[in-house]
């Protein structure tokens, strides 16, 4: 009986620990856009990597390691345009502000945080910078609905994983 509980808890923790958030935000050329990433509150952040995979480059949007930023690892497109929202990274806030966005900034961004081991993917953000005359750009400062899409999707995935873990736990429990 105890073994089945241990397996259930292990399954639950495994599913929960691998969950990362995904979000889509919109902006207009010239907007300052916040790419939000919240890592765990406890622990010292030893490594922070903001990357844009579709650049096909080894360079980063922002790279932080051993208590300092490495500008020589930063892709030239982002030089002088990216900064941490909270320089102290309090409560795991490793969000960045992308200044003066342009259509070339459109794409997927990934936030990896490391606490001593291999860095883990925390957030994936898809940024769409368009010059359309419609809706105002979402800089993630306001309360419009687009900023909540990632939260809703992340919570839905987390809820689904919890349900799967419960079902697996019940199947194991009934077999015993």
TrEMBL record:
Transmembrane segments annotated in the record for this chain: 149-173
SMART domains membership: IG
Top-level taxonomic group: Eukaryota
Principal place of residence: membrane
Ranges for domain Immunoglobulin: 22-130
Region forming the signal peptide: 1-21
GO molecular function, one term: signaling receptor binding
UniProt xrefs under SUPFAM superfamilies: Immunoglobulin
Localization terms from the record: Membrane
Keywords: Immunoglobulin domain, Membrane, Signal, Transmembrane, Transmembrane helix
Gene Ontology terms: biological process: regulation of cytokine production; T cell receptor signaling pathway
CC annotations in GO: external side of plasma membrane
Name of this protein: Immunoglobulin domain-containing protein
Natural source organism: Channa argus (Northern snakehead)
Lineage, uppermost ranks: Eukaryota, Metazoa, Chordata, Craniata, Vertebrata
């Amino acid at each position: 009986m105890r073994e089945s509980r241990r397996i259930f808890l292990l399954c639950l923790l495994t599913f929960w620990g691998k969950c990362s958030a995904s979000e889509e935000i919109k902006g207009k050329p010239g907007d300052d856009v916040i790419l939000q990433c919240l890592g765990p509150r406890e622990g010292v952040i030893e490594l922070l990597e903001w990357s844009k995979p579709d650049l096909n480059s080894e360079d980063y949007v922002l790279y932080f390691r051993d208590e300092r930023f490495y500008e020589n690892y930063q892709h030239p497109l982002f030089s002088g345009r990216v900064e941490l929202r909270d320089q102290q990274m309090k409560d795991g806030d490793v969000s960045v502000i992308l200044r003066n966005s342009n259509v070339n900034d459109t794409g997927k961004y990934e936030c990896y945080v490391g606490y001593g081991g291999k860095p883990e993917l925390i957030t994936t953000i898809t940024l769409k910078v368009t010059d359309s005359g419609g809706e105002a750009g979402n800089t993630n400062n306001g309360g419009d609905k687009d900023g909540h899409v990632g939260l809703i999707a992340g919570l839905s995935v987390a809820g689904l994983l919890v349900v799967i873990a419960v079902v697996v736990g019940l199947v194991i429990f009934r077999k015993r």
